[in-house]
Write a structure and sequence with these properties.
Blueprint lengths: L16 H51 L10 E5 L5 E5 L6 E9 L3 E5 L9 E3 L3 E7 L2 E7 L3 E2 H12 L4 E7 L4 E10 L6 E4 L16 E2 L7 E5 L2 E5 L3 E2 L6 E5 L9 E7 L1 H26 L2 E2 L5 E2 L7 H14 L18 E3 L6 E3 L1 H9 L4 H8 L5 H13 L4 H68 L1
Antiparallel strand pairs: 1-17, 2-16, 3-13, 3-17, 4-10, 4-12, 5-8, 6-7, 6-11, 9-10, 13-14, 15-16, 18-19, 20-21
Helix pairs in contact: 1-3, 1-7, 1-8, 4-7
Amino acid sequence: MASPILPSLGLGSGLDTTAIVKALVNAEKTPKQGQLDRRTSANTASISAVGSLKSALAAYKTAMDKLNDSANPAFIGSVAATSNDKYVKATAGSTAVNGNYSVQVSQLATASRVASQRYTDSSSVVSASGGTLTLTQNGTSLDVTIPANATLQQTRDAINAQATSKGFTANIVNDGTGSRLVLSSETMGKDSDITVSGVLTIDPSTQMTDAGGAGRIGDLAMDAEFDIDGMKLTSKSNKVDNAISGMTFELLSKTEALSPVSITVTANTDGLKKSVQSFVDAYNALVGTINNVSVSTKAADGTWNTPALSGDPAVRSMLTALRNELVVPGSNGSGQLSVLSQLGINTVQGTGLLEFDSTKFTKAINDQKLGGEVQNLFNGDGGLLDRMSKAMEPFSATGGVLDERSKSLEATKKSLSLEQSSLDARIKDLEASLTKKYNTMDTLVGQLNSQRDSVLSIFEAMSAQQKNS
């Protein structure tokens, strides 16, 4: 008697050939796919971890550069306040001494300005033959080549092209009657007047005239004249940085008679504290990222979480390079301040992060008078910020350690993708091959079953005939 055939089974054999093929294919694919999935997952996690490190390093470098900016110093030990910055501005440097100063400005430093003789307009020819125009200032001469038939405008352009880098500038001014070539200089102070000779002649000892004669414009160049606490001083510039040790004054305007500007210099405790905290935060942000991608942690249930770069030698080297610079004694300044612990900055055992004791810091600044030494410890060539930035360059630079690691991981990612495609193709071929074989088997079994049924029918017919005879 024929076996019943279920719709989901093979038509000839009655076996679920689809399930058999699927089981055989899975048996072949599962271990290889599992291994590939694990490798892909690990590579993806490593790419993400390296990306996090690169971002953290970029943020760290930005913070270090800002704190170490010489144009806008962050670790200024003292701060100067002026009673009226319309007249005088003051800046305290790392060697400034706290105190009060009185500044009276009687004369600002001025620069030389001279004008040529009057010409009809800017297209008037200055020299038909051309030649050399010599600018002399403070005993130093500069030659400017003037082409033949040069106009007033061309002469101006030649001077600006050849003398601007030396601090000279030329312009054309129309005085209502004609045009003059006006020369000025960045250099200020007495005896810095410009003398012009050669194709043009301008004598600064003579004032230009309304009739069109050449000469100086206004007064001769003058020194700044001022007094500090009653002591009369002069300066070639309105920026005075040598009158009081550690102080820079910018003279902006003459003060009213008997109305000096008061300048007070005090310890910059709050500013220094803010800068130190910024350093600690930047360091901790980088070290925190390093810990997140490389340090295993134990969960509440006792299981360990192992990050992508756990035990990675490059990450260990990065952390070591950072920590080494923290303990190098500072060599700048007087030597009173050489290590961070004097400012209340210490390393937390276990995490490697920094902690900042603001109370100890305030005591160091106010009681031990270390405010002027903080900038020497952190800033400048060979300072802590400079050393720590340089320590990270091999890791953050283009073509550096992390850059090369990223390239390697991306290459591995492509290789894994190719392996996945190859595995998918092999599994597809295997499935097709097994399906074909089992379909052939099913057909053969169906034929055998049909032959069996035919033979059985013959024997049953013969048996029935014998019983009837």
